[in-house]
Automatic annotation (TrEMBL), chains A, B:
PROSITE patterns: HTH_LACI_2
SMART domains: HTH_LACI
SUPFAM superfamilies found in the cross-reference section: lambda repressor-like DNA-binding domains, Periplasmic binding protein-like I
Record protein name field: LacI family DNA-binding transcriptional regulator
Keyword terms of this UniProt record: DNA-binding, Transcription, Transcription regulation
Domain HTH lacI-type: 5-59
Any Pfam family matching the protein: Peripla_BP_3
PANTHER family: LACI-RELATED TRANSCRIPTIONAL REPRESSOR (PTHR30146), LACTOSE OPERON REPRESSOR (PTHR30146:SF153)
Single GO molecular function: DNA binding
Length: 336, 336
DNA sequence: CTGAAAGCGCTTACAG
DNA sequence: CTGAAAGCGCTTACAG
């Protein structure tokens, strides 16, 4: 039914055996330049495309890897996909985008099913799935190559790419301290996102280093959503001694806090400084634009794909640079 | 090397021929309940997963479709992916996420290559790729099943799902007119997004219907980006007779216009009303929240997948409802 | 309701 | 440097 030409038809036109066509397609050595050229011409003439299914079935590689994600942030997912996709295509691999539920009972089963069905050559795992330990352990047991993006737990010897969330959290906090702030609140992300815990650790480290007492009442649980940022800000600003600065674990929550400030006519940054994390589009779209930490999301995924498919096996853990972005949502602490 | 069990091993354990196992896997009729049960048990015991490559190669269906997208909006792409993915998985299909360049010379060639390599059963095409006519025509020629999301051109008899952008643009404009605005600016999206042209048409229709003169100087070209919204607002507000309302073709541009207003201490909505389109997360994250048109992005993609894979062949064009969201970024026109 | 044969379009050893 | 045989793990006709 499908008029797709096959390797055999190509071989007929090129006047060689179909095995030779296969060699050319796979860029094998030991093919004379003349033969190679003839085959390439025949391929172009027929507009031949090798069947991926046939290659996968016959060969020992599928040239397919999956990207696992479970993240409510369109911005994050979009850039993770773009970076991973770019590097995979460059290296001749297809990338399957696989949403999943990192908390689900059957996460491991679902992923191993995909691995088997699709004969996957490897898996790229973005947070928070990158910290789903039962899955990670099963992949190690089955010797499936994988790479983790921003894993917080047991980074160990597995392939991984991340930024230094602790250092970034510390830098941002130190910047706020430098502006004169002492009552600095922190809004945490969901517990299964280890990065959030690390940013919180950096916040504590900075307070300690500068002799500012850590006040647990100024640390509020959020879930990385805009709504949770609103809620956190409302509870913080309801205090008799509200903070002069709010450091939210990501930009969405910072935007939520900012909306609360606007509603209450609290001028940012004059009366209240607000900072986020990630430097998503949102950070530049709100007013005033958010002071935040730029995270190279796309590069993280690009590097992860590169490590998985084209790594040297030696450099197994990669740490990329982050950048503190000072914008108008933060300013000197108001005089008491 | 891979210890994957095959259909033959399942058949041995179940005590039937491997052909019968195939029947059970494909939910064919004419299998006794007892036999079916035995096979299913064997499948569970071995944790058997059929090889997708083998099924594709042997059968005439690959149970694979691709989603084509070329859209700089993470929000839009994320929800399009989620909706299409959900319905595909429900119907037993795998969805390949395929970014592409709708303006590229070799768009058609790239897509047909994917179709051949992956033996695709169909294609879901999101805007602006859904209006790349050379591609659409080639798919028709090759009789590849496809469905277009929000196509503007030649909707014709091809499968498609959309909202009524003209009506939505008209409603939003009428709302602004109802608030007393007469000098209403419109910021257009990029020319290859036909939806933008249609929203603009709705804007014109509303002006006409209410006897408001159409002023071409109040229509500014943008490209759906935040930055272009900023630029548009800057040029509009530099006029000696600036508009009292700005209707931006999407939320990102509206957010850009809003930022300009903030910078210049123009109070929104008291001195200037601003409206967007799409109702992305951004619309609710900025201050004041944007009046906009809610577009059921996820449903559009879900319905597109459904039409492609489970349609009745009769209802070929689907129009989903939009909703005007009145929020705080628009208000009565200031008294002259 | 169930089965034995052929074949999908490639790659993998193995030869020469 | 090139080729003939076998086989990957399934589905498709064709039988009975």
């Amino acid at each position: 039914m499908s008029g797709r030409p096959t390797i055999k038809e190509v071989s007929k036109i090129a006047g060689v055996s179909f095995k030779t066509v296969s060699r050319v397609l796979n860029n094998e050595k030991h093919v004379s330049e003349a033969t190679r050229r003839k085959v390439e011409e025949a391929v172009a003439t027929l507009n031949f495309r090798p069947s991926h299914a046939a290659r996968t079935l016959a060969g020992r590689k599928s040239f397919q890897v999956a990207l696992l994600y479970d993240n409510p942030s369109p911005y994050y997912v979009y850039h993770i996909q773009a970076g991973a996709q770019e590097r995979c295509v460059e290296l001749g691999f297809r990338l399957l985008h696989q949403p999943c539920d990192s908390e689900a009972e059957d996460l491991t089963q679902g992923v191993t099913a995909l691995i088997d069905e699709a004969h996957l050559d490897g898996v790229i795992i973005s947070p928070p799935v990158s910290d789903a330990m039962p899955l990670i352990e099963e992949l190690e047991r089955r010797k499936i190559p994988f790479v983790r993006i921003a894993p917080g737990i047991a980074r160990g010897s597995t392939l991984s790419v991340a930024i230094d969330d602790v250092a970034a959290g510390r830098e941002l906090t130190e910047y706020l301290i430098g502006l004169g702030h002492r009552a600095i609140a922190f809004v945490k992300g969901p517990p299964n996102h280890i990065s959030s815990e690390e940013r919180h650790q950096g916040y504590r480290d900075a307070l300690d280093a500068h002799g500012v007492a850590y006040d647990p009442d100024l640390v509020v649980q959020g879930d990385y959503s805009f709504a949770s940022g609103r809620k956190a800000a409302e509870s913080l600003l309801a205090r008799t001694d509200p903070p002069t600065a709010i450091f939210a674990g990501n930009d969405d929550m910072a935007a939520g806090a900012l909306a609360v400030a606007h509603e209450r006519d609290i001028v940012v940054p004059d009366a209240l400084s607000i900072a986020g994390f990630d430097d998503t589009d949102l950070a530049r779209a709100v007013w005033p634009p958010l002071t935040t930490v730029h995270q190279p999301v796309r590069d993280l995924a690009w590097s992860a794909a590169n490590l998985l498919l084209d790594g040297d096996g030696k450099h197994r853990q990669l740490t990329l640079d982050h950048v503190l972005k000072k914008r108008a949502s933060t300013g000197p602490a108001p005089k008491a």
